[in-house]
Design a protein that fits this description.
single chain; about 300 residues; alpha/beta; Nucleotidyltransferase, domain 5; 6-stranded mixed beta sheet
């Protein structure tokens, strides 16, 4: 523990709605150790954020120095520790003008929250995903194209010349959870695996006729009742219909743009497979690694002012 305390130069924090993830970083931006807790934004009152962070940082805190802490995610939301104002597109995903210095009471830390990004027309926001985009650009500074960030609320972000120019959010993950757990489709899906052929069929159906998605969804239940369709096929169709609707909506932007997918491996693979149905290839990157790379990029921009 003493070595960890001595060698930790700064701390990277991804603070979401459900989890707090902390990386202890050395002076070369290498990870020394990491911890994760379930003290996400959604579980904390405003005055509980600093104690939760101090508890997670206990192994590296010292009375003889001030430790920089760079945070991203929902910790900067209106319901978070301190609200970090949104920067408006077009903008660099790391906008240091909107970084918030948190007024902490513990003298052993100085904490910063990276801002989210907003879009006025059509209205849209992101908080945390901009740090993943910054992570992609840290690895590929000349990238211009589309970055897909799959999740509960999937983002499709267009990037050019180091700036985020526009983006769209799709509630696909949330809709999937609602339909598979709370709608009539739960009787047909019921926690089944995702059949690959069913998924591809669903994607192709939605891409060809996105206006029929609502009808296709009911067809999942009808197919179960009339055709005795297996649950994994039904689940594949459900995922395919929903992700296919995203692909259909984004198709014009995707036809001439390189695509990067940054997210959890299993979900990213589904999006890559969906894109392949319209002959678009995508490079897949680990979402957590992109978040950390974005936090490193944020620290590199801030460290001269700390």
């Amino acid at each position: 523990m003493t070595d960890l305390r001595e060698h930790t130069s700064w701390v990277a924090v991804d603070w979401g709605t459900t989890n707090l993830r902390v990386w202890f970083m050395d002076e070369t931006n290498a990870v020394l150790d990491q911890v994760s807790t379930e003290q996400g934004m959604g579980t904390l009152s405003r005055d509980a954020f600093e104690p939760a962070l101090i508890a997670a940082l206990a192994p590296v805190l010292s009375d003889t120095r001030v430790l920089p802490v760079v945070c991203c995610g929902m910790v900067g939301s209106r319901q978070g520790w301190v609200e970090a104002p949104y920067a408006a597109v077009p903008v660099s995903p790391l906008n240091t003008q909107n970084v918030v210095t948190v007024p902490t009471t513990d003298p052993r830390i100085c904490a910063f929250i990276l801002s989210g990004i907003k879009q006025v027309t059509p209205p849209d926001v992101m908080r945390g995903e901009e740090t993943q985009i910054a992570g992609v650009l840290r690895a590929y500074p000349d990238f211009s194209g589309c970055i897909c960030l799959p999740g509960t609320h999937t983002k499709w972000a267009m990037v050019s010349d180091g700036k985020l120019t526009k983006f769209n959010t799709f509630m696909t993950g949330e809709i999937y959870a609602l339909l598979s757990k709370q709608s009539v489709l739960r009787h047909s899906v019921d926690g089944a695996a995702c059949d690959e052929a069913g998924f591809v069929q669903g994607v192709r159906t939605s891409v060809a006729a996105p206006e029929m998605v609502a009808a296709s969804l009911f067809g999942i239940r009808a197919g179960d009742l009339v055709l005795d369709r297996m649950g994994d096929v039904s689940n594949g169709l459900l995922s395919g219909y929903l992700i296919g609707a995203e692909i259909a909506a984004m198709r014009n932007d995707l036809n001439s743009s390189p695509v990067v997918i940054a997210g959890a491996s299993k979900l990213s693979a589904l999006y890559a497979q969906a894109l392949a149905t319209i002959d678009i290839s995508a490079d897949i990157h680990d979402g957590e690694a992109c978040t950390l790379d974005g936090l490193i990029a944020g620290y590199e921009l801030l460290k001269d002012t700390i």
